[in-house]
Amino acid sequence: MSGAVFDQARVYRNDTLLAHKSSIETAIAALRQRFDEPLSLDDLAHVAFMSRYHFTRVFTKITGVSPGRFLTAFRMQEAKRLLLHTHLNVTDISLDVGYNSLGTFTRTFTASVGLPPLRFRQLARNVSDLSLASAVTFMFAHLERNAQGPAVSGVLESSQGSMPAFVGLFRTLVPQSRPFSCALVQTPSAFVLCRAPSPGWGHISAAAFPTAQKIADILTADSPTMLVASATIGETNGGHVVGPILLRLRPSGVTDPPLLVSIPLLFLERTANLS
């Protein structure tokens, strides 16, 4: 292939990628605005001006998750907000975010967030006014640092200076449910995640909140001020440490699924149960 033809092909690929990304961002905007509706793949593909099959493939490639999973993430994010900031009961919240079955909503919420809806509300209201600085100090002092088992090591970096960040090892690309292992670090810093899944694949997700002042500010974080990073790992190779893996925090973008897991609440619940 000549240089001119090669450059032309590269320009075409870049234009195609930009067009795909723009179409998927348009579909995500529809998901965000209409998460409480029974949106079908055909509806979303129509918004993106793609066939159903092509839309599903491109959406998953760009976001890392299926359209259905992304829709569920938006619904659970709104459910977290309603539990934290309103007095609506769980049944009404489930209807408001698009679920006709309370049981299905409760199971989905628990699997996504790591806590049942009422337990999330109880813990969140107990600590939502706690300053993030004091909560971070408490967690640094009580984190379990000597867990045994397969481990993943890495380094977390940020171009925005030093700040506390949560790093977790999850089964899925979307950081949801209870992580296999989690760590709290001050960037830039090395980290080790113990009790890695073995055998099997895993996904590391990191999140930092430069502008957050209280725990409440990060329980429903869904804005460009949140910094995120992620990586996929392979098998943990018979108990040996995998890594080091380099993670660089970046501003959360439109194509990043909402952060569903509430690590501070999971940690505070664990320490409360152990006390």
Question: How do the strands and helices of this protein lay out in sequence?
Answer:
Elements: H1 3-33, H2 41-47, H3 52-63, H4 67-85, H5 90-96, H6 102-113, H7 117-127, H8 132-142, E1 152-157, E2 164-170, E3 181-186, E4 189-193, E5 202-208, H9 216-219, E6 227-233, E7 242-248, E8 250-251, H10 263-274
Parallel strand pairs: 1-7
Antiparallel strand pairs: 1-4, 2-3, 2-5, 5-6, 6-8
Helix pairs in contact: 2-3, 4-6, 4-7
Number of helices: 10
Number of separate structural domains: 3
Shape: globular
CATH class of the largest domain: Mainly Beta
In CATH, the homologous superfamily of the largest domain goes by the name: Carboxypeptidase-like, regulatory domain
- Major sheet: order of its strands? 3-2-5-6-8
* Range of helix content: 40-55%
End-to-end span in angstroms?
68 Å
Can you walk me through this structure?
This protein is an alpha+beta fold and 275 residues long. It has three domains: 3-63; 71-126, Arc Repressor Mutant, subunit A (Orthogonal Bundle), CATH 1.10.10.60; 129-274, Carboxypeptidase-like, regulatory domain (Immunoglobulin-like). 46% of the residues lie in helices and 17% in strands. The strands form two sheets. A five-stranded antiparallel sheet has the order 3-2-5-6-8, covered by helices on one side. Strands 4-1-7 form a three-stranded mixed sheet, with no helix packed on it. α2 crosses α3 (52-63) and α4 (67-85) packs across α7 (117-127). Residues 4-9 have low confidence and may be disordered.
